[in-house]
User: Which sequence fits this backbone?
């Protein structure tokens, strides 16, 4: 490129999900309601697990961390989208876009490892119940959580190390409501095919590999339970079906966005809604509100809160 015509991009325009006014108003109402629900649902899980000693077990420790990650994922993108829809000012700085991509891939990597840790927890609880407290010790839980954050950081740093210095000199419109690598790379003023392949290998293969590992682990658990007790198969399947539902909803958009070199089809940005607004709502419902212990603790905490309110 001729350097005299080079004009570095300082900000990007987020085109969002809809260009029509009625569509934007509907999206604004939808986003506000769902984001408030995400905050309340996941905060309730985190606070309940944190403050009730009856829930200080490996399973609930992992659940609380999953809720925290879901809350962070939603907060990373949805408030910006709500602000853009309300104000009509749909821009984000170059640095802000890079930061959003970095945090997004850190949190995505952490959630993948947490889902694997939760599958391990269920395997030990169902298939090795006598060894559960030994295997899933507090030390093991801390190691799993630390490993999740380490994987997320390494994954995100590797992604950005290859793309952060790409030249951006012209097009600055991102056809989505948030910044992510596929559409970000497409705007670079250079041949990006190798970059696309690198990101596909990094994000796409990690997503697919993690998904296959999780599904195989659930199948192995069900086969093990079936071999030991056919009667316990329905109970195990009922428990694992909730996990499988969350896994499919989380990884589904990842496959469309990352598994092949970027087609960046319009459906990608709508599928991303699953990861930022739908799945973070379903996680508290599927993992906790269907759980008898969690519901009992919530009722007890509600009663205590109402009692204190009457006294005051």
Assistant:
């Amino acid at each position: 490129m001729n350097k005299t015509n080079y004009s570095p991009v300082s900000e990007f325009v987020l085109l969002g999900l809809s260009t029509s006014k009625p569509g934007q108003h509907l999206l604004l109402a939808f986003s506000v309601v769902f984001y408030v629900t995400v905050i309340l649902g996941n905060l309730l899980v985190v606070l309940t697990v944190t403050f009730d000693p009856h829930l200080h077990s490996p399973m609930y420790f992992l659940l609380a961390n999953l809720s925290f990650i879901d809350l962070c994922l939603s907060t990373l993108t949805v408030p910006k989208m709500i602000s853009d829809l309300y104000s009509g000012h749909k821009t984000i700085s170059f640095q802000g876009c890079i930061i959003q991509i970095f945090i997004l891939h850190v949190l995505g990597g952490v959630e993948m490892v947490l889902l694997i840790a939760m599958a391990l927890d269920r395997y030990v609880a169902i298939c090795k119940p006598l060894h559960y407290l030994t295997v899933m010790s507090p030390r093991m839980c801390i190691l799993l959580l630390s490993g999740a954050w380490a994987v997320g950081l390494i994954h995100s740093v590797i992604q950005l190390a290859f793309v952060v210095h790409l030249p951006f000199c012209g097009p600055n419109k991102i056809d989505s409501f948030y910044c992510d690598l596929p559409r970000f790379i497409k705007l670079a003023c250079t041949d990006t095919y190798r970059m696309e392949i690198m990101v596909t290998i990094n994000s796409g293969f990690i997503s697919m590999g993690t998904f296959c590992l999780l599904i195989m682990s659930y199948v192995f658990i069900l086969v093990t339970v079936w071999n030991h007790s056919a009667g316990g198969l329905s109970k195990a399947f009922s428990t694992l079906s909730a996990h499988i539902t969350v896994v499919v909803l989380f990884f589904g958009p990842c496959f469309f966005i990352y598994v092949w070199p970027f087609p960046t089809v319009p459906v990608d940005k709508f599928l991303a809604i699953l990861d930022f607004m739908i799945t973070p709502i379903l996680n508290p419902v599927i993992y906790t509100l269907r759980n008898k212990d969690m519901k009992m603790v919530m009722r007890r905490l509600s009663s205590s809160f109402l009692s204190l309110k009457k006294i005051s």
